[in-house]
Amino acid sequence: MVSCVGMRYIFPKRFLWGAATSAYQIEGSPLADGATPSTWHEFTHRRGTIEDGTNGDVACDHYRRFEEDIRSMRDLGLTAYRFSTGWARIFPEPGSVNPTGLDFYDRLVDSLLSSGIVPLVTIFHLEEPLWLSRMGGFTQRSSVDHLLDLGTTLMRRLGDRVKMWCTINEPSLYSFQGYGTAEYPPAHRFDLRGMFHCAHHLLLAHARLCDAFSTLVQDGMIGLAHYYVDVVAADPARAKDREAAVFMDELANRVVLLPLFSGSYPERVLHRMGRFFPRGFEKDLATMGGRGSYTGINYYRRNRYRYSFFTPFLHAEEHLEPSAPHTAMGDEIYPPGLFHVLMRLKGEFGNPPCMITENGPPIPDVPGQDPLDDTGRVSYMADHIAQLGRALQERSDCRGYFFWSLLDNFEWSKGLSMRCGLIHTDFATQKREWKKSAYWYRDLIKRGWLEHEASEVAEP
Ligand code: BGC
After folding, report:
1. Per DSSP, what are the bridge partners of residue 356?
2. Using CA atoms, how far apart are residues 337 and 387, in angstroms rounded to an integer?
3. Which pLDDT tens digit goes with each residue over 228-269?
4. Is the CB of 404 under 6 A from ligand 1?
């Protein structure tokens, strides 16, 4: 339990302080040592897909520099590190393991452990092999078995040393950006069938991976990382806006949380969009509830909704409040949302063990300004971590916080210029330098307490 003296939040001794990354975003060398292309490799090499025209061919060159990066983690005092595995390194083709690809993660894990850092492995982080995508990706039921193959291979190889697992990063966002907005490969637009098939198969794969975990690893924790959106009505005084917000919350949050906890989908979503789910999904649902041992929350934003008669199915339209603070990627910054989600897990879902598996602001470089002087990132962290302290005080069972990200990396459709790291990466020289936020985080971890006000922010 956290103790609080004045506005000082004192965190539990065993609380995990980490940072997170993902394979394609940092590793580089995407085709090295027998790997085949991932969907992102193919996508970034298509003209016009990435805002600044960059790709992950080199990224942070972490595939070759991981030892150096682990030294930085150790110097930061991180107690845990969340990373993901490149599926097409390990399975360059369906059904055949590439030992060299697997060896890389083995060395990474050993090196983390010898630096006293707990590894948290994400099996699937927004990145599939091109061969899977050519078979229809997660819109096809066979994808569940392929992901299970990857997960069990990893658990067999690393499970003696890795006790913390994340099955899937952000099933809802992956489906939405891949089949709704076309921001991620396979870049379909308004393909509702694709979107719900993909989401359902990912959630089913999560349940299967949890089952595999209980025989292959046992003594550890497994969960998924949900992209949580704090959803509110644009005008809370308007009943229609409130209704729109309830629906959008079901679509953004409950569509993932309900299958996890109770093996069901939200009724309103089924009522309006049930026809887009795979046939026979009800039978799967019955086998999906109550599987993981913790819930991962990636928290970045609040969304406000207005009722809109003309938006098909949703009848809701996002409202951007100009007076509210936003990140460079357009996310409304709303630290109390982090407190709300932890309280919601407590109140609505029985206070399961949980972790903040991602949180952090993107801040692009501004010419003429020192990129290491990221005071904006420091206040973002303080504001959010104070809300976490506040939730712990209210007895949330939150066990850790993973900052996104350890170092500047390839930020998907925004490319290399959207910077999220504690550590600055010079992509031309691969020189790493600590930003102010890195020193701030190191000091926080060392102290174990944070003196900062965590308040409800007045509505703009
Ligand atoms: C994803 C990360 C991404 C981060 C910042 C999250 O939704 O899991 O891969 O880089 O957001 O945009």
Report:
1. 297, 401
2. 8
3. 999 999 999 999 999 999 999 999 999 999 999 999 999 999
4. yes
Say if ligand 1 is within 6 A of residue 295 CB.
no
Q: Would the pLDDT of 453 be above 50?
A: yes
For the record, the structure tokens of 199 come out as 């989401």
Asked, as a colleague might, if the bond just before 186 is cis with ω within 30 of 0, I would say yes
Structure tokens at 78: 């991180």
Atom nearest to 170 CA in ligand 1? 8
Which DSSP symbol is given to 411? B
Quote the ligand 1 centre to 282 CA distance (angstroms).
30
181: helix, strand or coil: strand
> What confidence tens digit (pLDDT) does each residue in 47-74 have?
999 999 999 999 999 999 999 999 999 9
Q: Please tell me the distance from the alpha carbon of residue 314 to that of residue 447, in angstroms, as a whole number.
A: 47
State the DSSP code for 332. Answer: B
128 lines ligand 1 (CB under 6 A): no
Q: How far is Cα 435 from Cα 301, in angstroms, rounded to an integer? A: 23
Three-state SS at 433: strand
Single pTM value for the model: 0.97
The position carrying tokens 């975003």 is 25
